Protein backbone atom coordinates (compact mmCIF):
# COMPACT_ATOMS: atom_id res chain seq x y z
CA UNK A 1 0.00 0.00 0.00
CA UNK A 2 1.40 3.36 -1.03
CA UNK A 3 1.78 6.10 1.58
CA UNK A 4 0.48 9.56 0.65
CA UNK A 5 1.91 12.65 2.29
CA UNK A 6 -0.46 15.53 2.96
CA UNK A 7 0.64 18.65 1.08
CA UNK A 8 -0.81 20.85 3.83
CA UNK A 9 0.34 19.36 7.15
CA UNK A 10 2.82 16.66 6.04
CA UNK A 11 0.95 13.78 7.71
CA UNK A 12 1.51 10.27 6.29
CA UNK A 13 -0.33 8.19 8.92
CA UNK A 14 -3.76 6.58 8.38
CA UNK A 15 -4.74 8.61 5.31
CA UNK A 16 -7.70 7.03 3.51
CA UNK A 17 -7.92 6.82 -0.29
CA UNK A 18 -10.83 6.83 -2.73
CA UNK A 19 -11.41 7.14 -6.47
CA UNK A 20 -13.17 10.12 -8.03
CA UNK A 21 -14.45 10.09 -11.58
CA UNK A 22 -14.19 13.07 -13.95
CA UNK A 23 -17.73 14.26 -14.69
CA UNK A 24 -17.47 17.71 -16.28
CA UNK A 25 -16.12 16.72 -19.70
CA UNK A 26 -17.54 13.20 -19.76
CA UNK A 27 -14.23 11.31 -19.95
CA UNK A 28 -15.07 9.39 -16.75
CA UNK A 29 -11.33 9.12 -16.10
CA UNK A 30 -10.65 7.97 -12.53
CA UNK A 31 -8.31 9.80 -10.19
CA UNK A 32 -7.05 8.63 -6.83
CA UNK A 33 -7.66 11.05 -3.94
CA UNK A 34 -6.89 10.79 -0.25
CA UNK A 35 -8.15 12.37 2.93
CA UNK A 36 -5.52 13.34 5.47
CA UNK A 37 -6.29 11.86 8.88
CA UNK A 38 -4.45 14.79 10.48
CA UNK A 39 -5.96 17.96 8.99
CA UNK A 40 -8.86 16.31 7.06
CA UNK A 41 -7.75 17.95 3.79
CA UNK A 42 -8.89 16.06 0.69
CA UNK A 43 -6.42 16.13 -2.20
CA UNK A 44 -5.50 14.32 -5.38
CA UNK A 45 -2.78 11.71 -4.85
CA UNK A 46 -0.83 12.62 -8.00
CA UNK A 47 -1.30 15.90 -9.82
CA UNK A 48 -1.64 15.20 -13.57
CA UNK A 49 1.27 16.41 -15.68
CA UNK A 50 -0.75 18.45 -18.19
CA UNK A 51 -3.39 20.32 -16.20
CA UNK A 52 -4.41 22.36 -19.26
CA UNK A 53 -6.28 19.26 -20.50
CA UNK A 54 -8.63 19.64 -17.54
CA UNK A 55 -8.79 23.45 -17.46
CA UNK A 56 -9.22 24.70 -21.04
CA UNK A 57 -9.51 28.36 -22.01
CA UNK A 58 -12.85 29.71 -20.82
CA UNK A 59 -13.07 27.22 -17.92
CA UNK A 60 -15.95 28.35 -15.71
CA UNK A 61 -14.06 28.91 -12.46
CA UNK A 62 -11.61 31.30 -14.11
CA UNK A 63 -14.42 33.72 -14.99
CA UNK A 64 -16.76 35.39 -12.53
CA UNK A 65 -20.44 35.75 -13.48
CA UNK A 66 -22.00 39.17 -13.93
CA UNK A 67 -23.29 40.66 -10.70
CA UNK A 68 -27.05 41.05 -10.20
CA UNK A 69 -28.07 42.65 -6.89
CA UNK A 70 -31.50 40.98 -6.67
CA UNK A 71 -30.19 37.50 -7.60
CA UNK A 72 -27.30 37.88 -5.15
CA UNK A 73 -29.67 38.84 -2.33
CA UNK A 74 -31.86 35.79 -3.03
CA UNK A 75 -28.76 33.56 -3.26
CA UNK A 76 -27.48 35.01 0.00
CA UNK A 77 -30.73 34.17 1.80
CA UNK A 78 -30.78 30.66 0.24
CA UNK A 79 -27.14 29.97 1.16
CA UNK A 80 -27.62 31.30 4.69
CA UNK A 81 -30.72 29.14 5.17
CA UNK A 82 -28.86 26.06 3.85
CA UNK A 83 -25.98 26.74 6.25
CA UNK A 84 -28.28 27.00 9.29
CA UNK A 85 -29.23 30.70 9.44
CA UNK A 86 -32.94 30.14 8.85
CA UNK A 87 -34.99 32.77 6.98
CA UNK A 88 -38.22 32.83 4.94
CA UNK A 89 -36.74 33.67 1.52
CA UNK A 90 -34.07 31.00 1.94
CA UNK A 91 -36.69 28.46 3.00
CA UNK A 92 -38.80 29.09 -0.11
CA UNK A 93 -35.79 28.75 -2.44
CA UNK A 94 -34.58 25.72 -0.49
CA UNK A 95 -37.95 23.99 -0.99
CA UNK A 96 -37.63 24.47 -4.75
CA UNK A 97 -33.88 23.86 -5.25
CA UNK A 98 -32.76 21.96 -2.16
CA UNK A 99 -29.69 22.89 -0.12
CA UNK A 100 -27.00 25.13 -1.56
CA UNK A 101 -24.49 23.04 -3.57
CA UNK A 102 -21.60 23.59 -1.14
CA UNK A 103 -23.57 22.00 1.70
CA UNK A 104 -22.98 18.52 0.24
CA UNK A 105 -19.25 19.10 0.74
CA UNK A 106 -19.57 20.50 4.24
CA UNK A 107 -22.25 18.24 5.74
CA UNK A 108 -19.86 15.64 7.18
CA UNK A 109 -17.34 18.11 8.56
CA UNK A 110 -17.05 20.15 11.73
CA UNK A 111 -16.82 23.38 9.73
CA UNK A 112 -18.60 26.37 11.24
CA UNK A 113 -18.89 30.05 10.28
CA UNK A 114 -15.58 30.86 12.03
CA UNK A 115 -13.58 27.94 10.52
CA UNK A 116 -10.65 28.68 8.24
CA UNK A 117 -11.42 27.36 4.76
CA UNK A 118 -8.72 27.02 2.09
CA UNK A 119 -9.89 26.32 -1.46
CA UNK A 120 -6.89 25.15 -3.50
CA UNK A 121 -7.69 25.47 -7.20
CA UNK A 122 -10.29 28.12 -6.49
CA UNK A 123 -10.18 29.88 -9.83
CA UNK A 124 -11.56 33.39 -9.37
CA UNK A 125 -13.21 32.36 -6.10
CA UNK A 126 -16.85 31.76 -6.99
CA UNK A 127 -17.27 28.96 -4.42
CA UNK A 128 -15.60 31.14 -1.77
CA UNK A 129 -17.92 33.99 -2.68
CA UNK A 130 -20.92 31.67 -2.18
CA UNK A 131 -19.54 30.59 1.19
CA UNK A 132 -19.14 34.25 2.16
CA UNK A 133 -22.75 34.95 1.16
CA UNK A 134 -23.77 32.10 3.49
CA UNK A 135 -21.92 33.73 6.40
CA UNK A 136 -18.49 32.06 6.48
CA UNK A 137 -15.81 34.57 7.48
CA UNK A 138 -12.30 33.15 7.08
CA UNK A 139 -11.87 32.18 3.42
CA UNK A 140 -8.74 31.81 1.31
CA UNK A 141 -8.37 30.68 -2.30
CA UNK A 142 -5.18 29.60 -4.04
CA UNK A 143 -4.92 29.05 -7.78
CA UNK A 144 -1.93 29.13 -10.12
CA UNK A 145 -4.12 30.41 -12.96
CA UNK A 146 -5.32 33.71 -11.52
CA UNK A 147 -3.47 36.83 -12.54
CA UNK A 148 -2.82 38.41 -9.14
CA UNK A 149 -3.71 38.40 -5.48
CA UNK A 150 -7.12 39.93 -4.90
CA UNK A 151 -9.73 40.55 -2.28
CA UNK A 152 -13.10 39.42 -3.65
CA UNK A 153 -15.17 40.08 -0.57
CA UNK A 154 -14.39 41.34 2.90
CA UNK A 155 -13.78 37.76 4.09
CA UNK A 156 -12.01 36.31 1.02
CA UNK A 157 -8.38 36.46 -0.02
CA UNK A 158 -7.22 35.01 -3.35
CA UNK A 159 -3.58 33.93 -3.56
CA UNK A 160 -1.79 33.78 -6.89
CA UNK A 161 0.64 31.22 -8.30
CA UNK A 162 3.81 31.77 -6.28
CA UNK A 163 1.95 31.31 -3.01
CA UNK A 164 -0.08 28.44 -4.41
CA UNK A 165 3.16 26.57 -5.14
CA UNK A 166 4.28 27.03 -1.52
CA UNK A 167 0.94 25.71 -0.22
CA UNK A 168 0.52 22.76 -2.56
CA UNK A 169 3.96 21.87 -3.87
CA UNK A 170 2.93 22.02 -7.53
Descriptors for this entry?
5 helices; 4-stranded mixed β-sheet; 170 residues; globular; 3-stranded antiparallel β-sheet; 2 domains; alpha/beta; N-terminal domain of TfIIb
Describe the fold and architecture.
The protein is an alpha/beta fold and about 170 residues long. It folds into 2 domains: about 50 residues, N-terminal domain of TfIIb (Single Sheet); about 100 residues, no CATH class. It is about 25% helix and about 20% strand. The strands form 2 sheets. It has a 4-stranded mixed sheet, sandwiched between helices. The protein has a 3-stranded antiparallel sheet with strand order 1-2-3, with no helix packed on it. A hairpin with a 2-residue loop joins strand 6 and strand 7. Helix 1 crosses helix 2 and helix 1 crosses helix 4. The protein is globular, with a radius of gyration of 17 Å. The chain starts with 15 loop residues before the first strand and ends with a helix. The C terminus is likely disordered.
